[in-house]
Amino acid sequence: MDFDFSDEQYLLRDTFREMLRRECTPKHVRAMWDDSSGRSPQRWAKLVELGVTGLTIPEEHGGSGMTEVDLVLLLEEAGRALLPEALLEHTAVGAPLLARAGTAAQKQEWLSRLASGAATVTVGLHGSPFVADATADLVILEQDGELHALTQERLTLIPQRSVDGARRLFSVTAETGDDTRMSSSAEHRQWAFDHAAAATATELVGVAGALLDMTVAYVSQREQFGRRVGSFQAVQHKLAETLLVVESARSAVYYAAYALANDLPDASIATSVAKAYATDAERKANTEALQLHGGIGFTWEHDLHLWLKRGKALELQYGDADWHRRQISDWIYATKS
Amino acid sequence: MDFELSPEDAAFRDEVRSWLADHREQIAAVRRHRWEDGGDSFEMYRVWERTLFEAGLGAVHWPKTYGGRDATLAQQAILTDEYIRADGPERINRLGLGLLGPTLMVYGTEEQRAAHLAPILRCDEIWCQGFSEPDAGSDLASLRTRGVRDGDDYVINGQKIWTSLGRFGDWIFCLVRTDTEVPKHKGITFILIDMHSAGVEVRPLVQINGEKRFAEVFFTDVHVPVSNVVGEVNDGWRVAMTTLGFERGTGLGSPAAFNRLLDQVIDLSRRQPRYDGVAADDPDVRRRVAQAYIDTRVFELNVQRTLTQLSKGAELGSEASLTKLYWSEMETRIEELAVDVLGPRGELAPSAPEAVRDGEWFNEYLYARASMIYAGTSEVQKNIIAQRVLGLPRES
User: Fold this and answer.
1) How many angstroms separate the CA atoms of A105 and A122, rounded?
2) Residue B288 pLDDT
């Protein structure tokens, strides 16, 4: 048993983190709030350079054929840095879904361009009324139990502004047809949903980790009553509880990635465990972060709200904690003797 | 990342599993007794410890040199897992095997190891832990039991409390104050005391559930040879921290125990009547069962991550507090759920005709509450996490 990552996986994470440290600061994120596209071609080029766009695409289609376990640490970093670009939709779900469920023609047409970053893909799955980054070159939509791969001329988009100004959401109506249909087995649809939910859980862990670190740093220097706020036991206990759940959420999302990468029978349940736990953990970090920052955290000027809003948004996507608990209890009472 | 057992670990698991299966009847016979009833009942547990030792399963985590098996952490976890699944009897010498033995391997003299390790293995010596005092609980370092040098002896006076197995103990490892002139952490010595010595008096404490599993121990002019000091004189705090590290680690919180508990609660919820149906029909019960599943599953994953880190040479430091805080609070939530699932039957005491499992659920629920107090309260664990893991300031 080895519940850890390889040196190569850590190295990739470190390289990615270093790129984000330079290209995805709070200032960069705020710039996206005010940008009409909300996306930076320069940063996309950096993602391409690191091979992130083709990470999960098979080698014969120009990708590097890596797994969910290779990707999970990058998703955590993306959450931590509030990466605006659609790593989740493109790399974690859309591209590998097309590789699994696309027709030969669809794969031929798109996969190598998705791998090279020349084209982008996003997904709109059942239960999600809006599609993030629906201006992508290719939109995979789940509609009436079918998966369709659609280009922009088949779509009508209505922007839906998010409280997180870096997110780009759209209502989408599509003209589907035989030529847009992908393989739509229940397994493929479940695969897509599990990957989206697990990746969202992982980004939540990144957001929660950032909120915790910022808050620890803040209470360690802020003084009131002639002493540092972080020396008060009431404050220390909140942060100790937060660390416990954030660290535990890490275990949950790492295992979900492993279960998905190996197509294990418990992959869907592991995903529900991860999404429910990570959602609650982030909610805890979110709550305590604002509470312990106090008034300054409630200002537009302070960067805290960038994380508070991203976290809140992701809590609600691909099943909230209660929804996933329901999947788990239904499974328990249907199967466990 | 790989969750498969290695061939060696799989072989170890098979060995343990088949040995436990071969001893099913003996296990059941021991389990019909409660060691706290003393006499022959206690002896059944002692004999069982010897049986385990003779099978090479008594202290697999100990080095071969001392009669163990040099088992890896993964193998220790496998053994605990299988032992719990087989409903194995409580390990009455866990303080000797789990705490004192390993402490002696780090800080003990050759003579101390020679004198005690083999008797612990054979269960010839039952060991107790003498740390807490009436006025030194969470603030352990303020302990007042005195050790005064008198020639080749220390003379011990004072009182220890919450001493598990106190009525049956042969030996007790104690923290005593040997210097009152220095800051409180610096005047403490870790010393081994023969409980059969003159001046040692044990008084059983009756617990909240009526059982007598722990005791108070009084020392009046008890003479203990200086050679029984473990580590340096006045350096006992450091020794004790090592001991507590063994206690708060993964050993006490076994994922298999909680998985088993959850399965029992699920089973209970399917059978317990609630209004016109069963508890499992209630959406709130289902929600809490799902959360309990999530909590037990994540705990198991946390333990596997920690085991991996330890197997790569990392030290289990203050992070052990995270494990203790997690499992004790989880255990309480699950036992609370069980009592809630019982509904109005939850309050029935042993021997009440309609008591489920003869009232054992309520008893377990009380023990879960104790788990948030012993081995460092949840509040103490949070202080440790905040100050030593997160690095928050300690000013007051």
Assistant:
1) 18
2) 98
pLDDT of residue A1: 86
| Chain B (271-290) residues lying within 8 Å, Cβ to Cβ, of chain A | 280, 286-287, 289-290
Q: Judge whether B318 is closer than 8 Å to chain A, CB to CB.
A: no
**For the whole model, what pTM was predicted?**
0.94
Contact A1 B9 (CB under 8 A): yes
Contact B381 A235 (CB under 8 A): no
Give yes or no for residue B252 having a pLDDT over 80. Answer: no
* Residue B236 confidence (pLDDT): 97
| Chain B closest-CA separation from residue A285 CA (Å) | 14
Is the pLDDT at B250 greater than 70, yes or no?
no
Cβ of A187: how many Cβ atoms within 10 Å? Answer: 12
Q: Which of B247, B331, B335, B364 is catalytic?
A: B247
pLDDT of residue A335: 80
CB distance B166 to B128 below 8 Å: yes
What chain A residue is nearest to B10 in terms of C-alpha separation?
A1
- Give kind and range of the element (H or E) at residue A155: strand A155-160
Percent of chain B having pLDDT more than 90? 88
Burial A293-304 (b: 16+ CB within 10 A, else e): beeebeeeeebb
| Cα–chain center distance at B88 | 15
pLDDT in tens, A15-67: 999 999 999 999 999 999 999 999 999 999 999 999 999 999 999 999 999 99
Measured from the Cβ of residue A106, the count of other Cβ atoms closer than 10 Å reads 20
For Cα atoms B329, B334, B335, give the angle at the middle one, nearest 5 degrees.
Answer: 100
Residues in B touching A247 (Cβ below 8 Å): 302, 322
Question: HEC string of chain B?
Answer: CECCCCHHHHHHHHHHHHHHHHCHHHHHHHHCCCHHHCHHHHHHHHHHHHHHHHCCCCCCCCCHHHCCCCCCHHHHHHHHHHHHHCCCCCCCCHHHHHHHHHHHHHHCCHHHHHHHHHHHHCCCCCEEEECCECCECCCHHHCCCEEEEECCEEEEEEEEEEEECHHHCCEEEEEEECCCCCCHHHCEEEEEEECCCCCEEEEEECCCCCCCCEEEEEEEEEEEEHHHEECCCCCHHHHHHHHHHHHHCCCCCCHHHHHHHHHHHHHHHHHCEECCEEHHHCHHHHHHHHHHHHHHHHHHHHHHHHHHHHHCCCCCCCCHHHHHHHHHHHHHHHHHHHHHHHHHHHHCCCCCCCCHHHHHHHHHHHHHHHHCCCCCCHHHHHHHHHHHHCCCCCCC
The confidence score (pLDDT) of residue B291 equals 98
Q: What is the DSSP letter of A230?
A: G
The pLDDT, as a whole number, for residue B396 is: 62
* Per-residue model confidence as pLDDT tens digits over B50-74: 999 999 999 999 999 999 999 988 8
C-alpha span between B307 and B73 (Å, rounded) = 7
Q: Is B247 a catalytic residue?
A: yes
Residue A276 has pLDDT above 70, yes or no: yes
Q: Report the complex ipTM.
A: 0.97
d(CA A285, CA B73): 32
